[in-house]
Amino acid sequence: MYMEPDGASRAENVAARLADFFGSWLFLLSLAVVIIAWLAVNLVVGLLDPQQPALFSHLDIALAIVAAMQGPLILLTQRREAGRDRARDIEIFHIALNTEQDVHAIRTAIEQRRPGMRTSVETSQPGEAP
Description:
By secondary structure, the chain is an all-alpha fold. Helix 1 crosses helix 3 (56-113) and helix 3 crosses helix 4. It is built from 4 helices and no strands.
């Protein structure tokens, strides 16, 4: 089975953990709760003090900061996944190559033990028993 290489740097590990958190349901639900609370507070403040400048614009800034932070994390995570996929594909290739060599060795051993078997199978017609 493929094991993650231990050669990842500390920064890559931290970025992977952050990307895992920012892509989790916990973050999405907590962000939704914060936005709903922000809207509720702004509506109440707007009803109590109509002269208060609109605080809704600050929500735009906060969401822009979150989006700006998530963009590089998404790219880093994709790059890291591509590296893992590449390493896993190389490992799968080597396993398939070893399996093919084993099958070839088994076939050669069978042909050496039963030399007449190959000719009887090749000479039989379709639908006939060898």
